[in-house]
Structures are given as structure tokens and as C-alpha cells.
User: Fold this.
Amino acid sequence: MDRQSVGIVLVLLCTCLGVLTKRPNIVFILTDDQDVTMGGETPMANTLNMIGKKGMTFQNMFTSSPLCCPSRSSILTGNYVHNHRAINNSIDGNCSSKAWQQGPEQNTFATHLKNIGYKTFFAGKYLNQYGDKAVGGVAHIPPGWDEWHGLVHNSVYYNYTLSVNGKAEVHGDDYAKDYLTDIINNRSHEFLAKQNGVFPFFAMVSTPACHSPFDSAPQYMDEFADKKAPRDPSFNKAGMDKHWLIRHAPNPLSNASLTYIDDTFRKRWRTLLSVDDMVKNIVTTLDEIKLLDETFIIFASDNGFHLGQFSLPNDKRQLYDFDIRVPLMIRGPGIPANSKNTDPVMNIDIMPTIIALAGEQAPSNVDGMSLVPLLKNKGTSDWRRSALIEHTGTYRVKGFRGCKNTQFLNNCAPDCVCEDGFNNTYSCRRVLTKTDNTMYCEFSDDENFQEFYNFTSDPHQLTNTIKKMTPEFLAEQNKELVKLSLCKGASCRQVHPPHEEDRDENSVIKDQSSNSAKSVKQNGILESNSVVSL
Assistant:
């Protein structure tokens, strides 16, 4: 039998046995500052139909930090902020610093995928300080990427510089040539169109939307003219029982702030329409090249956002659900269509999930947990009950320019309402089970301030009930928060036995991090019951 005939026989055997002989493709779409509590996914019909309804929507997705660079660093590495140490958006805060480049950046999902034979592509915003001259400029290409189109510094839509495989590409303000979301769309299309199915690929497209300055494409500038920011129960409400920054937010909001909030809400939605076009183009392209059925598509954001909640006009950085909840949808081979999951998942889970989908096991020092057991749409008792949220406040010693009495505060706009500061440093434990839906927070400030919320009775976190809690209860809360704040690797992935009434003995999946990975590879091939064919 000649070599060609042997190959045909092997293909037939693999087909009959249901064995997949190559790794799946993965596309990861990441937005910027996209909320879920104010309907941030609503304008994205293509995304909801082509990813959400074709796969699984995670309804309780949390970020490890409500700020861009710390959260993105968690996404890339699978680690909590206290382990990757990118604590804010500055170089001094380890955002794309030399220490970051020499440490955590050497162990991202990109480096792992590259090492196992993936073609890798990146386009868009990376980390807020990427490309700064102090940390290597545009010549620095993060390890693991074959094709690199990285935005220098923070999200914008016009007048920016890209590092294109290590060389500066300067853009202006011509929509047809420069609108960043469309540039990302076009270049991801070019990359995908070149794929022929021989080698697996990983593409990450990271859009500026819906981050400020909220520049929408010209064709969408008149959309949503009748929309206003949602007036939920926390909107324009004084938070007198909350931490210092919230207590000092002027209430009620000024008319100027209300106008600004509604205008910003509309602008944010408009920027997302171009992202929605990009999602449609990606799915359509994958279908045209006959690779859609072999590709996992992940859609997420780095952190949430608020507009008027507790009289804070416009920002993130707060511990409340509106800033820490983000969208997460995944479609791909074997994922049940239009399925929902309510387990508490996190941005640190994206990295180990990507590695598991590729047929490998994430390194032992990764804090996050693979979502593969949940993607099977089967109940599991081996899952986390709580998530850790960390934020280190940023401030300006001399105050925010143009605003009086704002020393050691920051982000004081509009109307000089400050949304961050030296005393806005905290850690929180967000618990979510069938019987326990709470949050406990501790501040590193001169008040040793604490907050506690029971979402079952208070879904909008209107009342801080910390003073009603017994000393014994608070001691236990502190103990568990300290454990999470010091965890690393396996200790972060330790799951707590659920309440007996939460257990479903017929749908228990054991050891999500190790067993799922062990079942992926046997004798060098991916089996039909592996993560690839969920």
C-alpha cells in the first residue's frame, strides 16, 4: 500500500471513530469598557445572534479589576492582579513595564499557543502603556505573536500609531483610512482569508469601543437619538453609607451632568455598531473559507462601566456590579446553541480556557479555571463559589487640573466629580451560589472602611449592611477575603463544597482543571470526547 493510500485509510479511520486529528481554531474578540447592567450588549444584534444564540452566554461573568490594564493583564495571564502585579494603567503601576515584559508577558495564552504550533494574530488595543518609548516603543512585539498590529497607548479611534510587526504606522482622522475599529476589522479579515485549514490559528481582535472618546463611524452618528441612560434604582442616588469617594459625590447630579450622561450613553452604543459589523464579517469570513465549524469564537470585555449610578457621572473603577460585570459569549464545536450558564466565572478563566480548547493544560501557576466543563452544559459541583476583585486607586498629589480641593484624587470629570483617589484602594470577595449572593469589601484607607451587600434582597447594592453583621460573621468574611488576596495558582482554584441543596449528584464533573486536560490528548491526537468536540 502506497503512502497516499495509507493516508486515506487513516483519514477514514479517524472519521469513523469520531477523532479530530488537528487542533481547533480560536478567535477572541475583546471590547473596552462594555457593561452589561446598562444594556451594553443591546445594540449588537449580529453578536447576539451569531455568537450568543449559536453558543453559550455566561450571565455571571466578573472581572478581577474594574480597570483596563489590570484586567487585560489578568486576561492574558490567567492570574489575579496581586500575582501579575499590573495594578493600574501607569508604567509605575507595572502596565506594560519592563518588569511586566520580562515576567508575566512571557507566559500568556499567545506564548503557549505559539509553542504548540498555532499561527497567531493580534490587532487593536493591547495594554494602556504599550508602545511607550520608556518601555521599548513600537519595536517591542510581545512574545507569541506572528502577526502584530498593536495600538500605541490607550483606546482612540483617530490620530493614533500602530506597531505593525515592530514598525510605526501613523494614522490621522480620515474615516476611510483611519477609523481604528474598521482597521482592525479589515486586517483580521485579511488574516482569516489566508487560512487554509492546514495549521490552527488564534486571532485576537481588541477594539477601542466602547471606550472614550466615543467616536462613532459617520454612518452611525444619528443612531439611538431617542435613547437615554437607564434610570435604575442606583441612578442619581446618594451613597451616604458607602466609602469616602461615593459619599462625596454631589447629589443630585447637575443638569449638565445629566445631559453629558445621556449623550455618552448614546455615543457608546454607536461605537459598538462598528464592532457588531466586525463580528458579522469575522463569522461570515470563517464560513466562506469553510472553517467556521472548526473554530471557537469568544466575545468578552475587560471591565464594566457606570453612567450616573450613585451620582458618579462617568467611569469604572468601583466595586459595584455595574463596573465588575462584563459580557462573555462563546460559540464553537460541541457547545449547545442558545445555552446559558449562571456560574460565577471570571476574566482569569479566559486564558486557561483557551489553552484547554487548544488541547493543552494551563501552567500550574495560573489562578483561573478552564470553562470547558461548563461549556459542556452540564452541572458541576467542582466550581468556585467566590471571586476576588482588586483595585489600587490612582491619584494626583496636586489635584485634578481645573478642579479645586482635589488633592490625591483623580478622574474628576465632568463637573469636577472625582471617581478615583488614593483612598479608593480595596479588595472584595464576590460570592455567588444558589443560596448565597453577597459581596464583602475592605478598603485600604484611613477609615478601614468595609461594605457588605446581599444581592438577594438588595440587587442594586443600595444599602451597605456592614453595621448589621455580627463580629463572628465579619471575622469569617475577612478570613476568606485574606485567603483569596494571598492565593496563587492552585490555592486560587480551590473550590468550596457547595451546600447540599446545591448538589446535583447526577451531573458532577470532577477536577475541572486537571482531568479535563488529561482527557484531551492521548497518543498525540485529540479524541472525540475531548474539549474540541464538547
In short: The longest helix spans residues 255-288. Residues 1-20, 498-533 have pLDDT under 50 and may be disordered. The chain is about 25% helix and 15% strand. The first strand starts at residue 25 and ends at 31.
